[in-house]
Q: What sequence folds into this?
């Protein structure tokens, strides 16, 4: 008996990620749990940006109201909504018209209810629908025209419907000749990535129709200016690319400069004279193993560098240059593994009472033991952690490790039984709804007196969302912890928020402490900060104290606490324990030893 082979298994994950439209999955509360690759590419977000956020946060306020008042009730009653017109706010802040359809699967057994959402780009869909419907009608009208209709469909697949230029797929189809010429040694292959500057302002002020008209005008200029043999394509939005064979790098960059001049000429749109500029990235083909995709990607990297350096210019990408995007992804992966594999370290810097010379607390400062770069300071990785969302597990580790160490000090009673421990919170952590429960759990786990935990928040983090910050700070205050404003003086420095927020101490930024004794302006600022803190009944703490003279001035000003290299550098826990023992009897603060 011969067996009949069964059907091949279907790769549903690939179907999900490669679908031609955006797919998102949320829980019943609207929190995103899954996103496909099409939507990430279309919107510009990364997966960590979206997972855990509310679907409504991707929409402007009006569409958020529409989703809440129309879509959610419909999902609850009928289980589905079909093609609701909304706008999606992309990662770069731009808005794209879209059609949203959704269906709800109720909870079943152990499976919670889920909502599956499909998002089409309304503008692109309308453009393609018109072309496809026209082609299909031609095919239906006459069998003899079928070949022509098929040719039209192929053209649509390879051509940008707005400008008539090749699209990304059309560019790949046209580049065989360039690759052959390169192999024959007929010149230098180069790609010029061209992106209009401030194109969003045209769309926002004059509308998408005017923006489309400008893109068509730009395409008409680029084609003759790029050269007779060049292939010019529109990749997406306001991004174009020109590929050609050049005599060398100098000729390629000269072509980029000429394109900049051509694009600067005014364009008349709806009776208004629009002056455009562009940023251009130039990439010259390197080794034989490089693909066309590699060349285009390097040109794109150079284009973004041109934008970051002021726009309206060209930049050349050398084949040996690293890819900052790839470098960042690699660093994020290393940091993620570092958090999970125990590569983080904590150092502690004492906070000294200026009246007694005794240590009243320590500030926990995280370090990363990088596998190849050694021990890294927070400035090397905290910003990257905040942008990627890794700050949440990193912050949880810092809090847990700090409280664990505080528990050990309490058990050992090495001058640390009533020692305050300070932990920094980032703006992203402050906006995290899980912050308060996480801190409450950590305090309970270590049986720590909440009043001994100081949470430090920067001024800018408080003012990003004052209303939300106030709610979060009040909830933290209800736990019994102390709250400090870090880096005071470099941000808003407002008496209003000091009165409104439940703050316990104000930390004066070290940039002002450095000038004490030499800069009368800094002395006046520090005096004002101390007086301001005392006026609202909170402590004043000086950061970055490095000299005995600074200590004397701060004592004369009435500053409460201080920390800095004059007392001790940030120390690992064992060395800090020694420092605490050595300083447990109290000394004059202006003669305290520094333990490095």
A:
């Amino acid at each position: 008996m011969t067996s009949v082979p069964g059907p091949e298994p279907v790769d549903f994950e690939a179907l999900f990620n490669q679908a031609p439209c955006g797919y998102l999955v949320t829980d019943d509360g609207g929190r995103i749990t899954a996103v496909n690759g099409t939507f990430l590419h279309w919107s510009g977000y990364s997966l960590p940006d979206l997972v855990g956020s509310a679907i409504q946060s991707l929409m402007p306020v009006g569409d958020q109201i529409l989703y809440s008042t129309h879509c959610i009730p419909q999902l609850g009653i009928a289980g589905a909504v079909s093609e609701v017109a909304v706008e999606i706010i992309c990662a770069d802040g731009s808005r794209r018209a879209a059609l949203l359809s959704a269906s709800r699967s109720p909870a079943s057994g152990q499976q919670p209810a889920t909502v599956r959402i499909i998002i089409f780009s309304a503008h692109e869909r309308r453009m393609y629908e018109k072309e496809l419907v026209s082609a299909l009608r031609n095919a239906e009208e006459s069998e003899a025209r079928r070949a022509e209709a098929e040719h039209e469909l192929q053209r649509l697949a390879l051509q940008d419907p707005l400008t008539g230029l090749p699209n990304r797929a059309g560019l790949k189809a046209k580049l065989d000749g360039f690759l052959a010429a390169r192999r024959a040694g007929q010149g230098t292959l180069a790609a010029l990535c061209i992106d209009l500057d401030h194109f969003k302002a045209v769309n926002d002020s004059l509308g998408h129709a005017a923006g489309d008209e400008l893109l068509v005008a730009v395409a008409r200029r680029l084609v003759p200016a790029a050269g007779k043999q060049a292939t010019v394509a529109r990749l997406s939005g306001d991004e174009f690319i020109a590929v050609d064979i050049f005599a060398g790098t100098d000729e390629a960059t000269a072509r980029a400069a000429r394109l900049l001049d051509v694009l600067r000429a005014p364009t008349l749109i709806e009776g208004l004279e629009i002056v455009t500029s562009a940023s251009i990235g130039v990439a010259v083909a390197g080794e034989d193993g490089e693909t066309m995709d590699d060349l285009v990607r390097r040109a794109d990297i150079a284009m973004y560098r041109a934008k970051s350096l002021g726009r309206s210019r060209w930049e050349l990408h050398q084949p040996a240059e690293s890819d900052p995007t790839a470098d960042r992804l690699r660093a994020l992966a290393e940091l993620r593994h570092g958090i999970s594999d125990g590569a983080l370290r904590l150092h502690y810097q004492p906070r000294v009472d200026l009246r007694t010379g005794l240590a009243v607390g320590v500030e926990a400062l995280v370090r990363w033991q990088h596998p190849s770069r050694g021990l890294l300071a927070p400035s090397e990785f905290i910003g990257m952690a905040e942008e990627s969302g890794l700050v949440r597990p990193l912050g949880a580790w810092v809090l847990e490790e700090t409280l664990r160490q505080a528990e050990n000090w309490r058990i050992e009673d090495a001058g640390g039984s009533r020692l305050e421990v300070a932990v920094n919170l980032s703006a992203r952590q402050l906006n995290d709804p899980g912050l308060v429960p996480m801190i409450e759990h950590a305090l309970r786990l270590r049986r720590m007196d909440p009043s001994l935990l100081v949470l430090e928040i920067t001024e800018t983090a408080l003012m990003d969302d004052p209303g939300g910050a106030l709610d979060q700070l009040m909830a933290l205050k209800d736990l019994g912890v102390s709250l400090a404003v870090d880096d005071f003086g470099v941000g808003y420095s407002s008496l209003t928020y000091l009165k409104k927020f439940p703050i316990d101490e104000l930390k004066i930024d070290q940039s002002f402490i450095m000038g004490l004794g030499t800069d009368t302006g800094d002395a006046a600022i520090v005096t004002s900060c101390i007086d301001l803190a005392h006026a609202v009944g909170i402590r004043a703490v000086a950061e970055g104290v490095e000299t005995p003279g600074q200590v004397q001035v701060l004592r004369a000003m009435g500053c409460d606490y201080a920390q800095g290299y004059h007392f001790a550098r940030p120390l690992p826990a064992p060395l800090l324990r020694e420092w605490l023992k050595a300083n447990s009897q109290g000394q004059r603060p202006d003669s305290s030893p520094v333990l490095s």
